[in-house]
Description:
Elements: H1 2-6, H2 11-24, H3 40-52, E1 58-62, H4 70-86, E2 90-94, H5 98-101, E3 109-111, E4 114-116
Amino acid sequence: xxxxxxxxxxxxxxxxxxxxxxxxxxxxxxxxxxxxxxxxxxxxxxxxxxxxxxxxxxxxxxxxxxxxxxxxxxxxxxxxxxxxxxxxxxxxxxxxxxxxxxxxxxxxxxxxxxxxx
Length: 117
């Protein structure tokens, strides 16, 4: 709800949109939970929902699945990729994970401060 409230949405609309986006990331059953009550993967999905709910033009994601095991990392990363496509949002991802990098639409490598495409 917070990103929408900051943008000036009324509380009722922000609440409805927040619940809708949590449902899209399969967390509607965790609506009233505190962050400490969520797993790492659930926290990452909440972060994706928070980033997408206000439909920005661009999301900057620095290691969006960095604290997760490889299987969950891929699941969360693909969720982010699918959500940004669904809402036509540009997304710039920074990662050291080569396997996740291969899942992107475009890959730009930087080595020793120089771009290597």
